[in-house]
């Protein structure tokens, strides 16, 4: 688990701003201003709080980052681990399609925290830990791709690692334009991503 998880139980805060709400609002500010460019004073000003009120909930700005990254990574790890575990019971190809679909659903459900995760560059121990967890997820996905290639379900003239990066690069790119209040339903979005990733844009042959 990430560093934020190890700090213990969620602190109860002042009315209207429990820790969960504070993290959610802080992530919005981090995504808009940039994490490194945002001070605790900036957060206090944006959220209409005093700095001491923020410290009542969390010990530091870094802890807020850790909680936010855990929010994204914990959810992604659950769906990818489940897809990997399912592969003995179903084909690796079907497990991979499931992993892509569920990853889209996580991205939509955790859009702000996933957006923040994808902007992490390893500038601190917390960010390095998050990047290591992302690498493990990438390795699991590449393993599913290799197994699907071995089954004969995917083309073998492109490396599994490249296939994995291209497919999940498409999933990650949703953070650049998807909006929860937009007109694209999550089920329709997940169907479209899976269809494009695995079936392509070509019309079926007559």
UniProtKB/TrEMBL annotation:
It holds the Pfam family TetR_C_24. Keywords: DNA-binding, Transcription, Transcription regulation. Residues 16-76 form the HTH tetR-type domain. Transmembrane segments: none annotated. The keyword NAD does not apply. Residues 39-58 bind DNA. The keyword DNA-binding applies. PANTHER family: HTH-TYPE TRANSCRIPTIONAL REGULATOR BETI, HTH-TYPE TRANSCRIPTIONAL REGULATOR RUTR. This is TetR/AcrR family transcriptional regulator.
């Amino acid at each position: 688990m990430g560093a934020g998880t190890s700090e213990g139980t969620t602190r109860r805060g002042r009315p209207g701003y429990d820790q969960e709400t504070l993290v959610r609002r802080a992530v919005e500010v981090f995504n808009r201003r940039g994490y490194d460019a945002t001070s605790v004073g900036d957060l206090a000003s944006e959220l209409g709080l005093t700095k001491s009120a923020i410290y009542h909930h969390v010990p530091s700005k870094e802890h807020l980052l850790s909680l936010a990254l855990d929010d994204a990574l914990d959810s992604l790890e659950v769906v990818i681990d489940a897809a990997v575990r399912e592969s003995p019971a179903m084909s690796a190809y079907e497990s991979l399609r499931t992993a892509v679909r569920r990853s889209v659903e996580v991205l939509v459900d955790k859009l702000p925290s996933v957006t923040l995760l994808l902007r992490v560059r390893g500038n601190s121990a917390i960010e390095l830990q998050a990047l290591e967890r992302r690498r493990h997820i990438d390795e699991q996905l590449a393993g599913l791709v290799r197994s699907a290639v071995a089954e004969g379900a995917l083309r073998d003239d492109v490396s599994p690692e490249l296939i994995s990066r291209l497919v999940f690069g498409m999933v990650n790119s949703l953070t650049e334009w998807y909006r929860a209040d937009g007109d694209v339903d999550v089920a329709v979005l997940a169907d479209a991503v899976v269809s494009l990733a695995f079936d392509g844009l070509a019309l079926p042959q007559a």
